[in-house]
């Protein structure tokens, strides 16, 4: 699902829950079309309280998520550095083996000719 569509769906779900919650808490009389002053004030307070709570929760979420992301980045950088170090060490070992093989092949023909000369 597209992230924008998912965000819209989440917003509308939240809006519907807040509307239902505040309506059930504040509206007592359905005999009139307009809200009484007391009901209107209650709905305003309910929605404001929820909006503030939601804003504070989002701030906390962003702070925590930022810390988590920074930690993940640090772990990834450490892992990449470790892999690079391992690759470099493997390359050094391969180079040393090649040098030893080259030294052995250089010595072998000389040792053979020495035996032949005897």
Automatic annotation (TrEMBL):
It comes from the Eukaryota. Keywords: Chaperone, Coiled coil, Disulfide bond, Membrane, Metal-binding, Mitochondrion, Mitochondrion inner membrane, Protein transport, Translocation, Transport, Zinc. Residues 5-61 form the Tim10-like domain. Residues 67-101 form a coiled coil. InterPro entries: Mito_inner_translocase_sub (IPR050673), Tim10-like (IPR004217), Tim10-like_dom_sf (IPR035427). It is found in: Mitochondrion inner membrane. The twin CX3C motif contains 4 conserved Cys residues that form 2 disulfide bonds in the mitochondrial intermembrane space. Mitochondrial intermembrane chaperone that participates in the import and insertion of some multi-pass transmembrane proteins into the mitochondrial inner membrane. Also required for the transfer of beta-barrel precursors from the TOM complex to the sorting and assembly machinery (SAM complex) of the outer membrane. Acts as a chaperone-like protein that protects the hydrophobic precursors from aggregation and guide them through the mitochondrial intermembrane space. Belongs to the small Tim family. Heterohexamer. This is Mitochondrial import inner membrane translocase subunit.
